[in-house]
Amino acid sequence: MDITARLDSLRKTTAGCGLVAFGDLGTRLVLRSSAAVQHRQEYLDQLCAQAEHGFHLQDALAAPITAPSGGAATVIVVTPQETRIYIRRPGATASTANDAILAVCDNEHSAQALVAPAMSLLSDLSEGA
Fold it and tell me: Where does the pLDDT of residue 113 fall: very low under 50, low under 70, confident under 90, or very high at 90 and above?
């Protein structure tokens, strides 16, 4: 199954999820997405930039107490309209460190339900599956 189909599956099997995307945090670009409603590329790339900024802040705060390869695996942003969750693999290799799954859901429960399957997808991508 290709990445677009996997993103579609993630979105469709998670109640309350309206958008799931695969992005590169280094370039702050969304490379693939699946959405119930089409979004402009600028919106998707803003999500990627917000994810990169959130991970950067968490890494900076955790630096004195964690190993350099550690780091937060998720960032959650709650707004009055939606809950955004950004997921990356902890301890990823240099070639996959910027890979992230970005999702927009109705609530935090829906967003949290995406963590395990998103980690699985990121793991498969890093292994070339």
Answer: very high
CA distances for 124 relative to 87, 107, 118, 129, angstroms: 14, 27, 10, 5
Q: What is residue 126's predicted lDDT score, i.e. its pLDDT?
A: 79
Amino acid in position 99: D
Q: By CB neighbour count within 10 A (0-12 exposed, 13-18 middle, 19+ buried), where does 76 fall?
A: middle
Strand intervals (E) in the chain: 17-24, 29-35, 74-78, 83-87, 99-105
**What are all long-range contacts of 62-70, with beta carbons under 8 Å and residues at least 24 apart?**
none
CA separation for the pair 116, 95 (Å, rounded): 21
Query: Which of 9-23, 27-41, 54-68, 74-88 has the lowest average pLDDT?
Result: 54-68
* Separation CA 82–CA 78 (nearest Å): 6
Q: Which residue has the tokens 């930039």?
A: 49
pLDDT of 82 reads: 94
Between CA 100 and CA 45 the distance in angstroms is: 12
Specify the pTM: 0.88
